[in-house]
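Final report, Chapter 2: Outcomes

The project's central promise was a pipeline that accepts a single protein chain and returns its three-dimensional structure in a standardized token representation, suitable for archiving and comparison. That pipeline is now operational. To close this chapter, we reproduce one record exactly as it appears in the project archive, with the input sequence first and the structure output second.
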Amino acid sequence: MTTITEPVSDPAFDGPDGLLPADLFARLVARISRDEEVSIDYAERVMSQTLGFLQACALNPAAGLSPSEAVDVGWHAFILHTREYAAYCQRLAGRFIHHRPSDDFDEAASRKSEAIGATVAAMRAAGIGVDPELWLPASRCSQCYAGCADDPRTGETA
């Protein structure tokens, strides 16, 4: 069972963005944009949701929260800046927020959607804005007819 705690009520705490220097946020956004070949606007959304995810983790340390694929990209970009990431975690949570990927892909896939649902619920309960597009699983087929196995123009099927 997931336990969700209340948001921090310290008036000096103005959310996760206020704990991250603007120049570091800009560097992280630039890295995401470059590495993932996405727009700066999209990369900013990813990084903002990453900070919201980390805040939810700070508020719910035993909940086993999990990032979406998009948010995990932002988390990885931040972790590469180890000193800044460690300092941010200390300011936000009073501890280091570890990244613990699962190597059990069969079991992890079934629990991943539950963990992401719990994460979104924890973020909302804490008053953290949720960007739904970044939390939904990426579709593997858009019916764009780009020559994949189910392309009706080629007659091929999986």
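Archive annotation: The two ends are 39 Å apart (CA to CA).
This record, like all others produced under the grant, will remain available to the consortium after the project formally closes.
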